[in-house]
Design goal:
The complex is a heterodimer of chains A (about 290) and B (about 625). With about 290 residues, chain A is mainly β. Chain A contains two helices and 13 strands; from the N terminus they run αββββββββββββαβ. Classes of the chains: A mainly beta (about 290), B alpha+beta (about 625). Chain B: Keywords: Copper, Metal-binding, Oxidoreductase, Signal.
Amino acid sequence: MRLNTVKYLTTLVVIVGALQVNTALAQMDHGPEHQDMGQMQGGSAPADARDPHAYSDGYTLTEGPYAQPGPRQLKLADEHAFWSVLGDRLEYQEDSDSTVYDIQAWYGTTYNRFVIKAEGDIADGTLEESSTELLWGHALNAYFDTQFGVRLDQYDEGKDRQWLAIGMQGLAPYWFELDVTAYVGDDGRTALSAEAEYELLLTQRLILQPRAELNLYGKDDLDNRLGSGLSDLALGLRLRYEFSRQFSPYIGVEWTDTYGDTADYRRAAGQDTSGTQFVAGLRFWF
Amino acid sequence: MTHGFPRPKQPWQLSRRRFVQGLAAGGVLAATPSWLQAAAKGATALDSAPVLSGREIDLVIAETPVNFTGVTRMATTINGSIPAPTLRLREGDDVTIRVTNRLPVATSIHWHGILLPYQMDGVPGISYPGISPGETFVYRFTLRQSGTYWYHSHSGFQEMTGMYGALIIEPRAGERHRADQDYVVQLSDWTDEDPMRAFSKLKVQSDVYNFNQPTFFDFTADVSKLGLQAALEKRQMWNQMRMNPTDLADLSAATLTFLMNGTTPAGNWSGLFQRGDRVRLRFINAASNSFYDVRIPGLKLTVIQADGQDVEPVTVDEFRFGPGETYDVMVEPQDDAYTIFAQSMERSGYARGTLAVQQGLIAPVPEPDPPEWLTMKDMMGAMGGGAMGHDMMKMDSMGQTKMDHSQMSGGMAMDHSMHGMQQGSENPLAKPSSTIRHARTEYGASVDQRVDTPSTNLDDPGIGLRNLSQRGLRPQGHRVLTLADLKSIDGVLDDRRPPARELELHLTGNMERYSWSFDGLEFGKSTPVSLRHNERVRIILQNDTMMTHPMHLHGMWSELETDQGELRVRRHTIPVQPAQRISYLTTPHDLGRWAWHCHLLFHMDAGMFREVVVS
């Protein structure tokens, strides 16, 4: 019963999230003919848009009358690099008796960032599998970055894989955090993964976070027991308390399911194809 | 409020309350000056800062330990005090101010609102290279004006860590208004965090300091009050646009302690008077990032000066002002004690002090108002609010006029052009253009929204100050100052020429990325605005964001006009409200390069900053 509620809620998140990607993409394609009072966001500049340098008389910050000699001295935060590390999930999963980490870090400016995404499972003191992405992110519009780079998968039992990655990450209308990435590997392998998160503030510090993640593969990967098509889906609901904005322990429940050949591989190996488990963890950033 | 969900008092709420209040004896620790020792004895602080006067002033900038909250931090101070010494100078004097830097990093001092040669303006990288460690820079200039001003560092976040002080220039001809007591009331804010750390946190999560966000239980409360549909509608546009209706300030009491004359609310700065006194209060907003709503319950405030320039006296009960702005106010207290109450715009806390007949007396301290959500008007301007009917009518008539006078057809409903009307009048620049022209750089990643139907009225007190009496938050008849109430006294606006040309710039930002800019271009990507010496020029600023930006133009006055082109009041810092389009005229009398920026320090540093070249 409770399980169904979790499934229902999080499936809703995925569907709405997917719809929002459409909206976000559609927003970028609005041509000048769509420039009307109704469009306050996105779009492209009409042909008669104002030139932001029209009042400069050709002067720059370093050239023209009364400019300070030498290289430009005044540089504000728009030219500084910042960095951050977000531990979105650092959690113990009850059933599998494993520890999962899901960390993202970035370094760069407002519009160009070097991004690392690292996810992995640790059980019995060994890193069972991990996926690490090294990406270059560039602002696509006000709310989304495109990301390009590599993904390195490591399997304790299986075969490591390397992929080229191209994706999009950002905030969709109605406050959905989205992360969708397509991958191309060797031997014509392809994959797609998508993540959606939402934050429901129960109070200023008690926050319920539905989360959905799914993975698709272009062809079977026998070594790693992954089937083509929709391989797996995880829906989670986590309740955290923000002692500070940057430090919040949480408890939650996560339901996972596998499909197609992935499910068959698991069945053949005598493993469950789906399951529900309680999780407890820590979210932090600095 | 939240039916069925009583909220227990959380431990953090208690600690936050203490944080807002600060230490009663908080302030500078080392070499404690006598004025602060007095403060440490009682619960009131008298005389906020030492006063320096004359034609030659020496200032020394150094690191000084301070403690406002129970934690010792290093501040950057001028002559060891926070606020810095009050400089009392005289109109017409040639002054020499020697500034010695004893910091390990470069520093600067900018004389806010003062007309002077650009080399003396104190903006590193624009006026001069700044003041290197160990160096003494000598400022020399002639005081061509009088009134209440202030001075502060223009380097990094030094202003935020203590470098601000009052600058009062006495008029040669004597004060227009007699006062028995004359106090500087300098409001500021303090954070124990490294300001750069606070800034970088906003870069990661721009609502990190906002603890008034819409919650699920706000929603359920609205459902039971307004019904499901109305509750959803109230949120629909905000959520669709990824805009937060509680985004009133970037910082809050979650990190700030609000100070009055360098004194915490618990410390209770006090100014003394005798019954029957006419008391002049020189309010200066020297905060890094906080708008203040100021009132003195029980007293009418007669505003006599704005930004150091005399205005026709206007009597109000409350006023809002942003960083950089000053208001001189006359009060005539009759009771024993009054609270000077300055709540921050986002309502997370307040600065507070007392006017009393003797030290130690206090008056009741109000609670901050409940935070109010931004409205559609704050997002969309004229189209979004109660002014809609009026403005729609106005737009219709413009469209009609245009149809009559031009050959163009099509796109009528979308075009707010006033060309038609302008052709009809003698001088096309008699009124500010109402044609909204977004820059092509406003369509990229740096801008999260554009406004196509801005409001142009000046009589909006702003979010949180509208309809206070009707909402039961203030007595009936409570009057809040608006820009429309300010009118320079005769003779102040001495250049009556109509503008020869018109510049339009938009104030832009992206809250999610925490980037602020003019026309979608942060400072590093921008080019200077070039003005001609002594020309009369109109500047239109349209605010395409949901925050109020106090825009400060160095080196020349900003002379505010109405949307009908009627010249109103001379300012050096003009607050532009969300989705508002305002215009002002200026005459650049002084050659050189000047800074022009939002005086919310974090917005300035994020890039809402332009250079102006006068040649």
